[in-house]
Amino acid sequence: MRIESEIKLAFKDVLIRPRRSTLRSRSEVSLECTYEFRHAEGKWKGVPVIAANMDTTGTFEMCAELAKHKCLTAIHKHYSIEEWKKFTKEHPECLDYMAISAGTSESDFKKLVELVEACKLKMICLDIANGYSEHFAETIRRVRKQFPKKIIMAGNVVTADMTEELILAGADIIKVGIGPGSVCTTRKKAGVGYPQLSAVVECADAAHALGGKVISDGGCTNPGDMAKAFGAGADFVMLGGMFAGHTESGGQIVEINGKKFKEFYGMSSSTAMKKYSGKVANYRASEGKTIRVPYKGHVTYTVLDMLGGIRSACTYTGAATLDHLHDRCIFIRVPMQTNEVFSRFEINMGVTGYEQKKN
């Protein structure tokens, strides 16, 4: 046993320091990035924001909408082969902005092989809660051998050593985050985790030295947190809770006392395990919450709010493009983020202030 005494930081522990800027307007900022990868062939171009591969956010409906903004969706792994074929045939424009998800099981591998080939998919998201398993690195090697030219995301991990291990095993992009998500209870149930800002800084440094990329996965509660993740070195930011509760999210709208909600839950929650496995296995614990999120309307308005916030961060730091934000970013540690004295009196127009169209 040993204790590391260096303080690790979460998004709530810092603010971005403003710097001299020649930018006159947020409209001058470009959020599109062009990435090359260590293993995969070709380039990817788009806005590097990803809807998480949860069945309440990583839906085909979400993908169709986010693709209009050149953002990505990691599609959850519970769609059938027929549903995949139907969607990709009807929405070929989404192929550049979607990733197919898979775990480490043999059945997942067989389904992955069939769908990547049948649907001409370009991006693969290999996803398990604990990316430190030796079996996971072996799965990455197997998938890389099967698909030498495809873009492979893999995770989750939170340390530099395992980031390097997974990149050398064949991953192009490493998902970083254990426990920061809004409906994740791993830190309570297992006592395991890592503050997200420090995890991104350390994993990004390791990945970039090897020609890899990282995704900051979890922990963002607002566009400011997204800007901090990019400033810390993340090449992509993955969101669950911020994409929950929309028309395009999974689940039905329920009305309680005149207010509309949608269900949102972690994929290691008892809700998800009972839905897909029939029960919570005797040898494990539920590591996710189930909550009702206030219904937010169409996701396009939330996306506009997110991207507007990130553009604002770029103008405050003098970054004309999103991929320059990391170079321009200086963090300051703070005891408090915002003044909340009147927060309970806030009047919201819809969710973000954009006029909501009727369903």
Main beta-sheet annotation: 8 strands, parallel, barrel
Q: What is the arithmetic mean of pLDDT? A: 92
Percent of residues in β-strands: 15-25%
Helical/strand content category: alpha/beta
Give the count of helical stretches: 11
N- and C-termini, Cα separation? 56 Å
Assembly form of the protein:
single chain
Instruction: State the share of residues found in helices, binned by percent.
Output: 25-40%
Q: Poorly predicted ranges (pLDDT <50, ≥5 residues)?
A: none
Order of helices and strands: EEEEHEHEHEHEHEHHEHEEEHEHHE
By DSSP, the count of extended strands is: 15
Coarse morphology: globular
Arrangement of strands in the largest sheet: 4-5-6-7-8-9-10-11
Rg: 20 Å
Describe the structure.
This protein is 31% helix and 19% strand. The protein is an alpha/beta fold. The protein has an eight-stranded parallel beta barrel, surrounded by six helices. A three-stranded antiparallel beta sheet has the order 12-13-14. The chain has a two-stranded antiparallel sheet with strand order 1-15. Helix 2 (81-90) packs parallel to helix 3 (106-119) and helix 5 crosses helix 7.
